[in-house]
């Protein structure tokens, strides 16, 4: 099998894409806040300086956890590979440059931080935790997953094609598997 590059997404470099994704993240955030207020108008409360500090630390740790989960799933599907973590263009990232994954593997790699952290937030709601802060954490994290959701969208658009995805330090490359041409030109 030969590979043909059919799409390249440089999410950390493409300024136009970054702006577009940030707009969608803000829309998603405000929609989630509106839905939260409509479904739970009793959500209210005040926050202390300690509470704000605790929320901020939890939020930062959530971002690191998000990238660590990506890294775990990179390793699950490519055990011998070396995952890189970094910070670029205002974003934390986990990358596994040079390693190619099939559609199902890469979909799990990109969506699992959202799934796992959302489940942790839901489980946390069973404890006496400030529900406003918990929902705000959910809304911020979910809207921050917009890049991962965008990758899923791009993979879905290629759902009927045999593709492999290569993670790069700036984004992803999508390759189509094409059969080698065994004919000889004369």
UniProtKB/TrEMBL annotation:
The chain crosses the membrane at residues 21-39, 45-65, 106-127, 133-153. The keyword NAD does not apply. Keywords: Membrane, Transmembrane, Transmembrane helix. It holds the Pfam family DUF3267. This is DUF3267 domain-containing protein. It comes from Gracilibacillus thailandensis. The lineage of its organism: Bacteria, Bacillati, Bacillota, Bacilli, Bacillales.
